[in-house]
Specification:
There is one protein chain. By secondary structure, the protein is of the alpha+beta class. It is built from three helices and nine strands, in the order αβββββββββαα. It has helices at 9-19, 130-139, 145-165, and strands at 26-30, 39-51, 56-67, 73-74, 83-85, 90-92, 102-104, 123-125, 127-129. β3 and β4 form a beta hairpin. The termini are far apart.
Length: 168
Amino acid sequence: MKKQLLIPQAVQQTVNEINSVEINLGEIQIHKHPLLPAFDRFIKINKIVVDTELPRTYLFYQQVLKDKITHQVEPSKLPNPEWMIGENEWSFLRDESFNKISVPVIDEQTQEPILGENGEPKTSMIKVDTHAYMLWLLKNNKLGFLDLLKVYLNEFVEIKKDELDRLS
């Protein structure tokens, strides 16, 4: 007797989606390359190494160009500057909507607000250790994995824009 599974259509659709998923940790679109306007540009994250002893997180990625019309991936030799989040990195603390939290700046002695040149109370954002913050966000389900990558990727791209845009 030959056996066969009777898989409901909705379950088979899930199986098909699993079987067709791209093998990478995330592909996130970034700004267009200034000299390659015919292509959309993405960062494809291939590997993440989290070293909790140092602490450091290494993100290994490649830049991907896709033709705007055909959506075909084009070979690219665009650079991939090192992306490492280490013990000396910091981030701004964010609220539930992931907006940066700003707090009043006060005089330590009088506890009175310090005023800016415009007469308004000064504010400042709260800095936290990036490595610990990323782990806290993930462990406490404050942000999904891809959402977390997008936030830090946007900051990385802003800092490394010139290096990422360099043509070989």
